[in-house]
């Protein structure tokens, strides 16, 4: 799997209406890159304390930081901000609550080639909205070969070697009322909170390739409710060729790792006569039970163990 590193240019922030941003100064520097999906409130850095300072994050000044700055000598304030901006690669400084930066802030930023922006939003609301924006834009991404569907409300990533029947299985699931997200190529992002979001490249959206039928428009064939743009990935199902040995009880919960996030994984051998769509439906329902703490295979195994133990004890007494 190839991972992709993304970035956002500071000038792009000015086009996001929900952030209510405007440029204060430093127009020449608005092409600086933002590569870190986090926001920092400088706090102690304004006093010159730089330990654990997040030097590559956007710095947001709220009313608290602004009130502190007004009580500082301008020369000391400029020195602290200069030191702060020299620690790493701060993309920009943003003033919240429609506050105007004092001259010391402007001079320090312009000297360090850092633009200053401001927003009409209060700092807490802005940081929440801005963090969501950065999380969506900068989260690590990878592409995998497979099919992603929403099956009974769970995101199921179906994988397997070429020609094994992934798309045919997905088509049967869509026919049974489940929802297609992506066929052939699945874009996966790791979002804040360590969960995976899968989507389809725009060019392939709503389309599916089925051997013998060619390219199908699932939305036109089954209606708009048969497709959706993205889905959280809850489990992986890998379709495999027939194998001689297989876990008959399913006690061991296998996992697979994507972008450092582990999700439950299940292997289903493909043999003539097996209804893969039904098996996947049941696998999803069984996984949903596991999330509720109901593990059927373990409960069955425990009952067998208890029965053997009881018979052994009875035999010993006799």
Commentary on this structure:
By secondary structure, this protein is an alpha/beta fold. It folds into 2 domains: 136 residues, HprK N-terminal domain-like (Udp-n-acetylmuramoylalanyl-d-glutamate--2,6- Diaminopimelate Ligase, Chain: A, domain 1, 3-Layer(aba) Sandwich), CATH 3.40.1390.20; 157 residues, Rossmann fold, CATH 3.40.50.300. Helix content is 32%, strand content 29%. It has 9 helices and 18 strands. The strands form 4 sheets. Strands 1, 9, 10, 11, 12, 15, 16, 17 and 18 form a 9-stranded mixed β-sheet that branches. It has a 5-stranded mixed β-sheet with strand order 3-8-7-6-5. Strand 13 and strand 14 form a beta hairpin. The longest helix is centred in the C-terminal third of the chain and has 22 residues. It is elongated, with a radius of gyration of 27 Å. 29% of the residues are buried. The model has no long low-confidence stretch (mean pLDDT 90).
Order of helices and strands: EEHEEEEHHEHEHEEHEEEEHEEEEHH
Rg to the nearest angstrom?
Answer: 27 Å
CATH class of the largest domain: Alpha Beta
Shape summary? elongated
CATH fold description of the largest domain: Rossmann fold
Please give the domain count.
Answer: 2
Strand content: 25-35%
The overall pLDDT average reads: 90
Main β-sheet, in a few words? 9 strands, mixed
What is the CATH homologous superfamily assignment of the largest domain? P-loop containing nucleotide triphosphate hydrolases
In terms of structural class, how would the helical and strand content be classed? alpha/beta
Calculate the terminal CA-CA distance, rounded to whole Å: 62 Å
Number of strands: 18
CATH architecture of the largest domain: 3-Layer(aba) Sandwich
Helix content: 25-40%
Low-pLDDT stretches: none
Count of helical stretches = 9
């Amino acid at each position: 799997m190839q991972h992709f590193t993304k970035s956002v240019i500071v000038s792009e922030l000015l086009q996001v209406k929900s952030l209510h941003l405007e440029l204060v100064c430093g127009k020449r520097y608005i092409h600086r890159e933002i590569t870190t999906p986090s926001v920092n409130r400088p706090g102690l850095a304004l006093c010159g304390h730089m330990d654990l300072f997040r030097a590559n994050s956007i710095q947001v000044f709220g009313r608290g930081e602004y009130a502190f700055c007004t009580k500082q000598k301008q020369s000391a304030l400029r020195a602290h901000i200069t030191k702060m901006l020299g620690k790493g690669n701060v993309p920009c400084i943003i003033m919240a609550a429609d506050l105007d930066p004092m001259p010391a802030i402007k001079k320090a930023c312009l000297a360090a080639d850092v633009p200053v922006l401001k927003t009409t939003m209060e700092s807490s609301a802005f940081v929440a909205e801005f963090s969501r924006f950065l999380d969506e834009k900068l989260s690590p991404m990878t592409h995998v070969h497979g099919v992603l569907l929403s099956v009974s409300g769970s995101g199921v990533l179906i994988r397997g070697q070429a020609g094994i029947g992934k798309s045919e299985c997905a088509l049967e699931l869509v026919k049974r009322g489940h929802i297609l997200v992506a066929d052939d190529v699945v874009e996966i992002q790791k979002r804040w909170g360590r969960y995976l979001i899968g989507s389809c490249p725009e060019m392939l959206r709503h389309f599916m390739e089925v051997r013998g039928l060619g390219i199908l428009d699932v939305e036109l064939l089954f209606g708009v409710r048969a497709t959706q743009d993205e889905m959280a990935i809850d489990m992986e199902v890998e379709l495999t060729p027939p194998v001689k040995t297989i876990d008959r009880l399913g006690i061991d919960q296998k996992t697979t790792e994507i972008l450092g996030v582990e999700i439950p994984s299940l292997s289903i051998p493909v043999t003539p006569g097996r209804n893969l769509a039904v098996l996947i439906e049941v696998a999803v329902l069984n996984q949903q039970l596991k999330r509720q703490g109901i593990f059927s295979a373990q409960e069955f195994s425990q009952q067998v163990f208890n029965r053997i133990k009881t018979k052994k004890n009875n035999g010993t007494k006799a």
